[in-house]
Each structure stands twice: as C-alpha cells, then as structure tokens.
C-alpha cells in the first residue's frame, strides 16, 4: 500500500529511488506502529525486526545509531503523530537503514544518498491526523 501511495505521490522516478522508497516505507511503519501500539518491536530499532542482521564491522555504529533513533522516535511521537519530519531527520535515519543488512543493499542497486522528498510520509501523517493520538 505504501508503494502505491509513493507512486501516486509522484516519487517513483525509476530504479534509482528504490532504496529511499523502501526506507520511507519502513519509517512510516515505525512511526505509526510506535504511536499506536508499542515501542517493543520497532522495525529498525534496538530490538531488530525486519531490518535483518548487522555486519560485525557495523555493529557498534548500529547500536549507537539505533539507540539514538529510538530516542528520536519516542520524542517525535511523545505528543501524538507529528505534523511532519524534518528533511535532516529523514536523511539521517536513511543512513541507519543503509548500514543494515536489510535486503536492500547499496551494492544491489539501492541508493540512499540521493535527493528524495518523503511525500508519502507526509501524506500518511496528514491522513492519520485524528486517528492516532
């Protein structure tokens, strides 16, 4: 559904955006899941989830960034769903997604260091107003 929304929002412009589309999808999942259900099982939080395992050389970086991510997410959701996510925050957590072995590797044609506007994320946040407090 998120990929359909991304296409509808005009962010799909070919293969070069695949990594950012996957990352945006997972970030949307985390924000909505965290806001509505629990902090126990985030997709790319400290407890793992669908992001898969982390390579040994990236484990320390992963632990540090994922703890920071969980703190950011908790703060972001503390007063309900945010109106938006800053471009800096959106890009920062894309880097976290990119270092994980998540099935969407940079050497497999997934790109994370590109200009990408999270239009689907913004649309989901707007559509979810009043649904999740």
Terminal-residue CA separation: 22 Å
Quick one: overall form? globular
The total count of strands amounts to 0
Average of pLDDT? 80
Element-by-element helix/strand order: HHHHH
Detail the poorly predicted runs.
Answer: 45-51
Walk me through this protein's architecture.
The chain has 133 residues and is an all-alpha fold. The protein has a domain at 63-119. Helices cover 51% and strands 0% of the residues. It has helices at 2-8, 18-36, 59-77, 87-99, 119-128. Helix 2 (18-36) crosses helix 4 (87-99). The radius of gyration is 14 Å and the shape is globular.
Features:
single chain; 133 residues; mainly alpha
Spell out the blueprint of helices and strands.
Layout: H1 2-8, H2 18-36, H3 59-77, H4 87-99, H5 119-128
Gist of the model:
The protein is mainly α and 133 residues long.
